[in-house]
Write a structure and sequence with these properties.
Elements: H1 3-25, H2 32-56, H3 63-142, H4 149-176, H5 179-184, H6 186-198, E1 204-209, H7 218-239, E2 243-251, E3 254-261, H8 268-274, H9 277-286, E4 291-296, E5 302-309, H10 323-337
Parallel strand pairs: 1-2
Antiparallel strand pairs: 2-3, 3-5, 4-5
Helix pairs in contact: 1-2, 2-3, 3-4, 6-7, 7-9
Length: 341
Amino acid sequence: MRAVEILMIVSIVLQLLAMVIALLLVNKTKFKALWVCCIIALVLLSVERFLQLRIFAGFEVSDLAFAWVGIVVSLSFSICVVCARFLVNHVDNVNLERRILENRLMTAVLRTEERSRASFSRELHDGLGPLLSSAKMSLSALQRAELSDKDRVVLQNSTAAIDEAIRSLREISNNLSPHILNNFGLARGIKNFVDRLGAVRDTHITFRTTLGEQRFDSNIEVIIYRVVCELINNSLKHASCTEIEITLRLGGKHLIVDYRDNGCGFSVRDVENRGMGLSNIRSRVSSLNGRFTITSRPGEGMQAKVSVAIDGSAAISTDGDNETHNEARRNGKKRGKNSTR
Protein backbone atom coordinates (compact mmCIF):
# COMPACT_ATOMS: atom_id res chain seq x y z
CA MET A 1 0.00 0.00 0.00
CA ARG A 2 1.38 3.36 -1.01
CA ALA A 3 2.02 6.17 1.47
CA VAL A 4 -0.69 8.35 -0.09
CA GLU A 5 -3.30 5.68 0.47
CA ILE A 6 -2.19 5.26 4.11
CA LEU A 7 -2.49 9.02 4.69
CA MET A 8 -5.97 9.02 3.16
CA ILE A 9 -7.08 6.20 5.46
CA VAL A 10 -5.68 8.09 8.48
CA SER A 11 -7.55 11.18 7.27
CA ILE A 12 -10.82 9.21 7.05
CA VAL A 13 -10.32 7.83 10.58
CA LEU A 14 -9.64 11.32 12.02
CA GLN A 15 -12.68 12.77 10.27
CA LEU A 16 -14.91 10.00 11.58
CA LEU A 17 -13.51 10.55 15.10
CA ALA A 18 -14.27 14.27 14.82
CA MET A 19 -17.77 13.35 13.66
CA VAL A 20 -18.32 11.24 16.81
CA ILE A 21 -17.21 14.16 19.01
CA ALA A 22 -19.60 16.48 17.12
CA LEU A 23 -22.41 13.98 17.72
CA LEU A 24 -21.73 14.14 21.46
CA LEU A 25 -21.91 17.96 21.35
CA VAL A 26 -25.24 18.19 19.54
CA ASN A 27 -27.26 18.38 22.77
CA LYS A 28 -24.71 20.43 24.71
CA THR A 29 -25.74 23.81 23.26
CA LYS A 30 -28.89 25.27 21.76
CA PHE A 31 -27.08 25.77 18.41
CA LYS A 32 -27.63 22.20 17.20
CA ALA A 33 -27.47 23.27 13.54
CA LEU A 34 -23.78 24.06 14.01
CA TRP A 35 -22.89 20.52 15.02
CA VAL A 36 -25.28 18.90 12.54
CA CYS A 37 -23.63 20.78 9.66
CA CYS A 38 -20.20 19.81 11.02
CA ILE A 39 -21.25 16.16 11.06
CA ILE A 40 -22.55 16.35 7.48
CA ALA A 41 -19.38 18.07 6.28
CA LEU A 42 -17.10 15.55 8.04
CA VAL A 43 -19.07 12.59 6.64
CA LEU A 44 -18.87 14.00 3.11
CA LEU A 45 -15.14 14.67 3.49
CA SER A 46 -14.73 11.04 4.49
CA VAL A 47 -16.76 10.04 1.41
CA GLU A 48 -14.53 12.22 -0.76
CA ARG A 49 -11.41 10.54 0.62
CA PHE A 50 -13.03 7.13 0.05
CA LEU A 51 -13.75 8.02 -3.60
CA GLN A 52 -10.13 9.09 -4.02
CA LEU A 53 -9.03 5.72 -2.63
CA ARG A 54 -11.21 3.99 -5.24
CA ILE A 55 -9.51 6.01 -7.96
CA PHE A 56 -6.12 4.89 -6.66
CA ALA A 57 -7.45 1.29 -6.68
CA GLY A 58 -8.27 1.59 -10.39
CA PHE A 59 -12.03 2.19 -10.24
CA GLU A 60 -13.69 4.94 -12.22
CA VAL A 61 -15.47 7.72 -10.31
CA SER A 62 -17.60 10.38 -11.95
CA ASP A 63 -16.31 13.94 -11.77
CA LEU A 64 -19.88 15.03 -11.12
CA ALA A 65 -19.88 13.06 -7.85
CA PHE A 66 -16.76 14.93 -6.69
CA ALA A 67 -18.36 18.24 -7.66
CA TRP A 68 -21.55 17.59 -5.72
CA VAL A 69 -19.63 16.39 -2.66
CA GLY A 70 -17.50 19.54 -2.78
CA ILE A 71 -20.57 21.78 -3.08
CA VAL A 72 -22.35 20.16 -0.13
CA VAL A 73 -19.16 20.26 1.98
CA SER A 74 -18.68 23.95 1.21
CA LEU A 75 -22.32 24.70 1.99
CA SER A 76 -22.15 22.80 5.28
CA PHE A 77 -19.00 24.61 6.40
CA SER A 78 -20.55 27.94 5.41
CA ILE A 79 -23.54 27.21 7.62
CA CYS A 80 -21.12 26.16 10.38
CA VAL A 81 -19.34 29.51 10.18
CA VAL A 82 -22.63 31.44 10.37
CA CYS A 83 -23.80 29.34 13.33
CA ALA A 84 -20.41 29.77 15.01
CA ARG A 85 -20.85 33.52 14.71
CA PHE A 86 -24.22 33.28 16.46
CA LEU A 87 -22.60 31.07 19.11
CA VAL A 88 -19.84 33.62 19.73
CA ASN A 89 -22.44 36.39 20.04
CA HIS A 90 -24.40 34.25 22.46
CA VAL A 91 -21.32 33.63 24.61
CA ASP A 92 -20.53 37.37 24.58
CA ASN A 93 -24.08 38.17 25.68
CA VAL A 94 -23.90 35.58 28.46
CA ASN A 95 -20.60 37.04 29.69
CA LEU A 96 -22.07 40.56 29.57
CA GLU A 97 -25.12 39.48 31.54
CA ARG A 98 -22.84 37.76 34.06
CA ARG A 99 -20.78 40.93 34.53
CA ILE A 100 -23.95 43.01 34.91
CA LEU A 101 -25.27 40.54 37.48
CA GLU A 102 -21.96 40.61 39.37
CA ASN A 103 -22.05 44.42 39.44
CA ARG A 104 -25.63 44.38 40.67
CA LEU A 105 -24.79 41.87 43.38
CA MET A 106 -21.76 43.92 44.43
CA THR A 107 -23.84 47.10 44.49
CA ALA A 108 -26.50 45.38 46.58
CA VAL A 109 -23.87 44.09 49.01
CA LEU A 110 -22.28 47.53 49.34
CA ARG A 111 -25.65 49.22 49.84
CA THR A 112 -26.62 46.68 52.48
CA GLU A 113 -23.27 47.17 54.19
CA GLU A 114 -23.67 50.96 54.23
CA ARG A 115 -27.23 50.72 55.53
CA SER A 116 -26.04 48.41 58.31
CA ARG A 117 -23.21 50.80 59.14
CA ALA A 118 -25.57 53.76 59.22
CA SER A 119 -28.10 51.91 61.39
CA PHE A 120 -25.44 50.73 63.83
CA SER A 121 -23.91 54.22 63.95
CA ARG A 122 -27.31 55.77 64.64
CA GLU A 123 -28.05 53.31 67.41
CA LEU A 124 -24.70 54.00 69.05
CA HIS A 125 -25.00 57.77 68.73
CA ASP A 126 -28.66 58.15 69.65
CA GLY A 127 -28.88 55.28 72.13
CA LEU A 128 -25.64 54.94 74.03
CA GLY A 129 -24.56 58.57 73.61
CA PRO A 130 -27.35 60.13 75.70
CA LEU A 131 -26.81 57.51 78.44
CA LEU A 132 -23.16 58.47 78.74
CA SER A 133 -24.07 62.15 78.74
CA SER A 134 -26.59 61.55 81.52
CA ALA A 135 -24.00 59.66 83.54
CA LYS A 136 -21.56 62.55 83.09
CA MET A 137 -24.16 65.09 84.26
CA SER A 138 -24.90 62.98 87.32
CA LEU A 139 -21.23 62.86 88.21
CA SER A 140 -20.95 66.61 87.62
CA ALA A 141 -23.68 67.17 90.22
CA LEU A 142 -21.54 65.34 92.78
CA GLN A 143 -18.71 67.82 92.30
CA ARG A 144 -20.71 70.39 94.31
CA ALA A 145 -21.03 68.03 97.22
CA GLU A 146 -18.63 67.84 100.16
CA LEU A 147 -16.24 65.03 99.28
CA SER A 148 -13.01 63.80 100.70
CA ASP A 149 -9.87 64.12 98.65
CA LYS A 150 -9.93 60.41 97.88
CA ASP A 151 -13.55 60.52 96.73
CA ARG A 152 -12.86 63.61 94.64
CA VAL A 153 -10.00 61.79 92.85
CA VAL A 154 -12.31 58.85 92.16
CA LEU A 155 -14.94 61.28 90.82
CA GLN A 156 -12.42 62.99 88.53
CA ASN A 157 -11.18 59.62 87.22
CA SER A 158 -14.75 58.50 86.55
CA THR A 159 -15.56 61.74 84.72
CA ALA A 160 -12.40 61.40 82.63
CA ALA A 161 -13.31 57.79 81.79
CA ILE A 162 -16.78 58.85 80.65
CA ASP A 163 -15.30 61.67 78.55
CA GLU A 164 -12.98 59.18 76.89
CA ALA A 165 -15.91 56.81 76.28
CA ILE A 166 -17.89 59.65 74.67
CA ARG A 167 -14.96 60.56 72.42
CA SER A 168 -14.47 56.92 71.44
CA LEU A 169 -18.19 56.52 70.79
CA ARG A 170 -18.22 59.63 68.60
CA GLU A 171 -15.20 58.37 66.64
CA ILE A 172 -16.65 54.89 66.16
CA SER A 173 -19.99 56.34 65.07
CA ASN A 174 -18.28 58.68 62.62
CA ASN A 175 -16.14 55.90 61.13
CA LEU A 176 -19.18 53.69 60.64
CA SER A 177 -21.23 56.38 58.92
CA PRO A 178 -19.55 59.80 58.68
CA HIS A 179 -22.27 62.42 59.10
CA ILE A 180 -20.14 65.07 57.40
CA LEU A 181 -20.06 62.95 54.24
CA ASN A 182 -23.82 62.45 54.36
CA ASN A 183 -24.62 66.07 55.17
CA PHE A 184 -21.98 68.09 53.31
CA GLY A 185 -20.64 65.87 50.52
CA LEU A 186 -17.58 63.98 49.39
CA ALA A 187 -15.00 66.78 49.50
CA ARG A 188 -15.88 67.78 53.07
CA GLY A 189 -16.03 64.15 54.16
CA ILE A 190 -12.54 63.33 52.89
CA LYS A 191 -11.13 66.61 54.25
CA ASN A 192 -12.55 65.86 57.69
CA PHE A 193 -11.04 62.36 57.63
CA VAL A 194 -7.65 63.76 56.58
CA ASP A 195 -7.76 66.47 59.25
CA ARG A 196 -8.56 63.96 61.99
CA LEU A 197 -5.64 61.76 60.91
CA GLY A 198 -3.31 64.75 60.68
CA ALA A 199 -3.97 65.57 64.31
CA VAL A 200 -2.67 62.20 65.53
CA ARG A 201 -0.18 61.13 62.80
CA ASP A 202 3.25 62.35 61.81
CA THR A 203 2.59 61.66 58.14
CA HIS A 204 1.87 64.85 56.18
CA ILE A 205 -1.33 64.39 54.17
CA THR A 206 -2.16 66.93 51.45
CA PHE A 207 -5.69 66.99 50.09
CA ARG A 208 -6.63 69.16 47.10
CA THR A 209 -10.01 69.42 45.44
CA THR A 210 -11.91 71.64 43.02
CA LEU A 211 -15.36 70.28 43.88
CA GLY A 212 -16.45 72.73 46.55
CA GLU A 213 -19.94 71.86 47.78
CA GLN A 214 -20.93 69.79 44.74
CA ARG A 215 -22.94 66.69 45.53
CA PHE A 216 -23.06 63.37 43.68
CA ASP A 217 -25.07 60.19 43.77
CA SER A 218 -24.92 58.76 47.28
CA ASN A 219 -23.40 55.47 46.05
CA ILE A 220 -20.55 57.33 44.37
CA GLU A 221 -19.85 59.48 47.41
CA VAL A 222 -19.82 56.56 49.84
CA ILE A 223 -17.70 54.27 47.66
CA ILE A 224 -15.13 56.94 46.73
CA TYR A 225 -14.90 57.93 50.40
CA ARG A 226 -14.32 54.31 51.46
CA VAL A 227 -11.72 53.81 48.71
CA VAL A 228 -9.77 56.91 49.74
CA CYS A 229 -9.91 55.89 53.40
CA GLU A 230 -8.69 52.39 52.53
CA LEU A 231 -5.78 53.77 50.48
CA ILE A 232 -4.76 56.12 53.29
CA ASN A 233 -4.96 53.39 55.92
CA ASN A 234 -2.88 51.04 53.75
CA SER A 235 -0.21 53.72 53.29
CA LEU A 236 -0.07 54.48 57.01
CA LYS A 237 0.04 50.82 58.04
CA HIS A 238 2.34 49.30 55.42
CA ALA A 239 4.17 51.96 53.39
CA SER A 240 6.17 53.75 56.13
CA CYS A 241 5.51 56.95 54.18
CA THR A 242 6.02 60.55 55.32
CA GLU A 243 3.90 62.23 52.65
CA ILE A 244 0.55 61.46 51.05
CA GLU A 245 -1.02 63.53 48.28
CA ILE A 246 -4.68 63.24 47.28
CA THR A 247 -6.39 65.16 44.48
CA LEU A 248 -10.15 65.01 43.94
CA ARG A 249 -11.36 66.61 40.71
CA LEU A 250 -13.78 66.50 37.82
CA GLY A 251 -12.46 65.49 34.41
CA GLY A 252 -15.20 65.90 31.84
CA LYS A 253 -17.98 63.55 32.90
CA HIS A 254 -15.78 61.62 35.32
CA LEU A 255 -14.97 62.03 38.98
CA ILE A 256 -11.25 61.38 39.39
CA VAL A 257 -9.11 60.65 42.42
CA ASP A 258 -5.32 60.86 42.08
CA TYR A 259 -3.46 59.34 45.00
CA ARG A 260 0.26 59.17 45.76
CA ASP A 261 2.54 58.33 48.68
CA ASN A 262 6.34 58.30 49.06
CA GLY A 263 6.45 55.02 50.94
CA CYS A 264 8.51 51.88 50.49
CA GLY A 265 6.49 50.70 47.48
CA PHE A 266 5.65 47.11 46.61
CA SER A 267 5.03 44.63 43.83
CA VAL A 268 1.42 45.10 42.80
CA ARG A 269 1.03 41.50 41.64
CA ASP A 270 2.36 40.07 44.90
CA VAL A 271 0.14 42.30 47.03
CA GLU A 272 -2.99 41.50 45.02
CA ASN A 273 -2.30 37.77 45.29
CA ARG A 274 -1.58 37.98 49.02
CA GLY A 275 -4.23 40.28 50.45
CA MET A 276 -7.81 41.45 50.07
CA GLY A 277 -7.25 45.22 50.35
CA LEU A 278 -6.70 46.01 46.69
CA SER A 279 -9.28 43.42 45.63
CA ASN A 280 -11.89 45.13 47.82
CA ILE A 281 -11.02 48.51 46.30
CA ARG A 282 -11.28 47.10 42.76
CA SER A 283 -14.64 45.51 43.61
CA ARG A 284 -16.00 48.76 45.02
CA VAL A 285 -14.90 50.79 42.00
CA SER A 286 -16.12 48.08 39.61
CA SER A 287 -19.59 48.25 41.17
CA LEU A 288 -19.75 51.82 39.78
CA ASN A 289 -18.42 50.68 36.37
CA GLY A 290 -15.35 52.76 37.17
CA ARG A 291 -11.63 52.21 36.63
CA PHE A 292 -8.97 51.68 39.26
CA THR A 293 -5.28 51.63 38.33
CA ILE A 294 -2.31 51.33 40.64
CA THR A 295 1.42 51.45 39.97
CA SER A 296 4.22 50.83 42.43
CA ARG A 297 7.71 49.45 42.68
CA PRO A 298 9.77 48.58 45.75
CA GLY A 299 11.42 51.74 47.01
CA GLU A 300 9.51 54.08 44.66
CA GLY A 301 6.26 54.77 46.47
CA MET A 302 2.80 54.16 45.09
CA GLN A 303 0.42 55.94 42.70
CA ALA A 304 -3.25 55.10 42.27
CA LYS A 305 -6.05 56.56 40.17
CA VAL A 306 -9.80 56.10 40.43
CA SER A 307 -12.12 57.28 37.65
CA VAL A 308 -15.92 57.02 37.87
CA ALA A 309 -18.51 58.31 35.39
CA ILE A 310 -20.99 60.75 36.89
CA ASP A 311 -23.42 61.06 33.96
CA GLY A 312 -26.83 59.37 33.91
CA SER A 313 -27.55 57.56 37.16
CA ALA A 314 -24.63 59.25 38.88
CA ALA A 315 -25.52 62.84 38.03
CA ILE A 316 -24.34 65.72 40.15
CA SER A 317 -27.02 67.00 42.50
CA THR A 318 -26.47 70.45 43.96
CA ASP A 319 -30.10 71.35 44.70
CA GLY A 320 -30.58 68.94 47.60
CA ASP A 321 -33.37 66.94 45.93
CA ASN A 322 -31.62 63.63 46.39
CA GLU A 323 -33.70 61.58 48.79
CA THR A 324 -30.73 59.89 50.39
CA HIS A 325 -29.00 63.16 51.10
CA ASN A 326 -32.20 64.66 52.49
CA GLU A 327 -32.61 61.75 54.84
CA ALA A 328 -28.99 62.07 55.89
CA ARG A 329 -29.48 65.76 56.60
CA ARG A 330 -32.57 65.04 58.69
CA ASN A 331 -30.62 62.45 60.67
CA GLY A 332 -27.84 64.98 61.09
CA LYS A 333 -30.23 67.52 62.55
CA LYS A 334 -31.64 64.91 64.92
CA ARG A 335 -28.13 64.00 66.05
CA GLY A 336 -27.39 67.66 66.63
CA LYS A 337 -30.18 67.82 69.19
CA ASN A 338 -28.91 64.71 70.97
CA SER A 339 -25.22 65.54 70.69
CA THR A 340 -22.90 63.85 73.16
CA ARG A 341 -20.63 66.87 73.29
